[in-house]
Amino acid sequence: EDLEATLDALRDRFGPPPEELTSLGRLSLLKHQLGAMGLDALQRVDDHLNCTMRDAKAFERALSRLGADLRVLSVRRALWMLPNASASPAQVLDHVYKVATGCTPSPAKGKSRPAARRRP
């Protein structure tokens, strides 16, 4: 959500960003979001992504809510099946981005964080 807001602000000021900038922003966001969900590594192989994670079952539970096809191989390994085996790298990035951003709860709009407590 923050990425999209930042890109919207840049779009308003400078026009449409190059596709490379959008991809870079999405990759950065994915690195942090998927890492927070327990993913250590991701590599595309044909019709799936090889996933290495801290807890494959927990990662599977997070993704299954959105219909992602994750096939757990062991405690730390799984295959994330792609909906289209012939998808381009940009399409794979888009798919992973949509799934990952759907798994991460967004902060409630209009609510502010509690004020930091001050020490006397």
Could you tell me the mean pLDDT? Answer: 80
Q: Strand-residue fraction?
A: 15-25%
Taking Cα atoms only, what radius of gyration do you get, to the nearest Å? 17 Å
**Poorly predicted spans:** 105-120
Residue share in helices?
A: 40-55%
Order of helices and strands: HHEEHEEH
Shape: elongated
Intertermini distance:
36 Å
DSSP, total strands:
4
Structural class: alpha+beta
Strand order of the largest sheet: 1-2-4-3
Count of runs of 4 or more consecutive helical residues: 4
Query: What is the makeup of the main sheet?
Result: 4 strands, antiparallel
Describe the overall structure:
This protein is α+β, with helices and mostly antiparallel strands. 46% of the residues lie in helices and 18% in strands. It has helices spanning 2-14, 19-36, 56-64, 89-103; strands spanning 39-45, 48-53, 69-72, 77-81. The protein has a four-stranded antiparallel β-sheet. It is elongated and about 50 Å long. The N and C termini lie far apart (36 Å).
